[in-house]
Specification:
Blueprint lengths: L1 H20 L3 H16 L11 E8 L9 E3 L2 H11 L10 E2 L5 E3 L4 H8 L3 E8 L7 H6 L11 H10 L13 H9 L10 E3 L15 E2 L18 H15 L5 H25 L12 H14 L8 E8 L8 H26 L5 E7 L3 E6 L2 E4 L3 E6 L8 E2 L23 E2 H12 L3 H7 L10 H5 L5
Parallel strand pairs: 1-8, 1-9, 5-13, 5-14, 6-7, 6-8
Antiparallel strand pairs: 2-4, 3-4, 5-12, 9-12, 10-11
Helix pairs in contact: 1-2, 4-11, 7-13, 10-11
């Protein structure tokens, strides 16, 4: 039975990809939606146990994670100091973890404590890759390298879509959206599994599922003079609108507008009720945009049962990481906001009792260069990510430190742009596996995953269960 399932699925994939390659650009989006529906229909996620949520914290601009997490081993630290020059942080200012394996930026006190509590892990030197490459291949085989490698807009799109072997215009869905397409049947509701607290993004649109963007301060806004009004005129207007929405029409655009409005209004009412009833969680620094977004995520998660949700995907973002100049003071503010936001979110999840059911991770356009660019750093490639949650096998480092040597084996040239040692596909697959996706479905979510060894997460055990 399973063999037939896999053969049907493979047939659908091959036929669908062949149809895509013969399509015009205008027809692609519609066909991708049909393909997503066909493939998702083969899945069996309706009976997934418990609740799980994935939270993407995207650091817009290319985060200098080389100055967030630094090797503690003296030889590697000396390499780091020599390569970074004036950008290097003094060893005396850095925060050591309890096992003396990594040094944290001095502003990451909360994250260091969560790491020591074994609820946070650092995944080293992750980046956008089509397949594993080395310095020589980078210099001689451009077809192996993602297009427009050091450009913000292209890399934000590629990192959030994670299908870099194909032209970005061909693939409309992000990898979070492709996960949501498969996992939406786990939820006993018509509501989408995907919610953004940072407007539109490339990560969350799916081929079947569509994300809802929510104002992180107020939540969804209801309709004036219709919703949450008690006077007679509002009731009458509401009743009239309901009759208009119930009118039959055969025009496809009118049908689309009608269903879209009804879905949006139904979603807003349901989400507003959940947010209004959510816990207070205590003081919030409203000047910290990341903390505000993550607080709204916590409020949403508090209503998971009322919304009949078993799987959800959230997106938050923090800009300002393009530190070409004035890096040291700018990075102080950015890391302080990151630390405060994530530590506050971790506390809220514990208050809800769901810290083991929510996994939060960072991602970015790319890393930064090791070398100084005036008084900042330039666009790089590989960088370090963090994964936080009670299910994380934390207090550990995953992957390998790169060689901190300008012009060395891991440098694409002579600026310290580090070649990733781990693909975003591998990183994302570990997260998807924790969410409950099968190995075969992970290949649908991450088509380039077939080019990489996927055994690292099993070998090292990124999650405890």
């Amino acid at each position: 039975m399973r063999k037939n399932y896999k053969s049907r699925r493979e047939f659908l994939k091959r036929a669908s990809y062949a149809a895509l390659l013969g399509s015009s650009a205008a027809a692609v989006n519609g066909k991708m939606s049909l393909i997503g529906s066909a493939l998702a229909a083969q899945g069996d996620y309706a009976n997934l146990p418990g609740y799980k949520a994935l939270v993407c914290v995207f650091l817009y601009g290319g985060s200098d994670s080389f100055n967030m997490f630094i090797p503690a081993e003296q030889g590697l630290f000396e390499q780091y100091t020599q390569a970074r020059g004036q950008l290097a942080l003094p060893q005396s200012s850095l925060l050591a973890d309890s096992s003396a394996s990594v040094l944290f930026n001095p502003n990451l006190t909360g994250l260091r404590d969560i790491y020591n509590d074994s609820n946070l892990a650092i995944v080293r030197n992750v980046g956008n890759l089509i397949q594993p490459v080395n310095r020589l291949q980078y210099q001689n085989n451009p077809e192996l390298i993602p297009a427009e490698l050091f450009a913000h807009n292209h890399q934000q799109e590629q990192v959030q879509k994670s299908w870099s072997s194909r032209p970005t215009g061909l693939v409309g869905a992000g990898w979070g959206g492709r996960m949501a397409d498969l996992l939406m049947e786990a939820n006993n509701t018509n509501l989408t599994p995907s919610y953004s607290m940072n407007n539109a993004n490339f990560f969350q649109p799916g081929n079947r599922s569509s994300p809802i963007a929510i104002n992180p301060l107020t939540g969804p806004r209801l309709m004036a003079y219709l919703d949450n009004n008690t006077n007679t005129n509002s009731d009458q207007r509401d009743a009239t609108l309901e009759k208009l929405m119930a009118l039959s029409t055969q025009h496809p655009l009118e049908q689309f507008a009608q269903s879209s409005f009804i879905n949006a209004r139904t979603s807003s009412r349901a989400l507003s009720g959940v947010i209004d009833a959510s816990p207070d969680f205590g003081p919030l620094n409203t000047n910290n945009k990341l903390a505000v977004q993550l607080r709204m995520v916590a409020r949403m998660i508090s209503g998971r049962d009322q919304l009949s949700m078993k799987r959800q995907v959230f997106f938050v973002g923090l800009g300002g990481w393009d530190t070409h100049d004035n890096q040291t003071p700018r990075l102080q503010t950015l890391t302080a906001n990151l630390n405060e936001g994530l530590a506050d979110f971790n506390r809220a999840l514990k208050e809800l009792g769901v810290e083991n059911q929510v996994t939060t991770f960072t991602s970015s356009d790319f890393g930064r260069s090791l070398t100084i660019n005036g008084d900042g750093s330039d666009h790089g490639w590989g960088g370090h990510y963090l994964v936080m949650g009670g299910a994380v096998n934390g207090g550990k480092l995953y992957g390998d430190w790169p060689e901190y040597a300008v012009g060395g084996a891991d440098d694409v040239g002579d600026k310290g742009r580090i070649i990733p040692g781990m693909s975003l596909n591998q990183f994302g697959a570990a997260l998807g596996s924790w969410m409950g996706l099968s190995n075969s479905d992970l290949l649908d979510v991450f088509p380039d995953l077939q080019n990489f060894d996927t055994g690292w997460q099993q070998q090292y055990g990124l999650f405890t269960g």
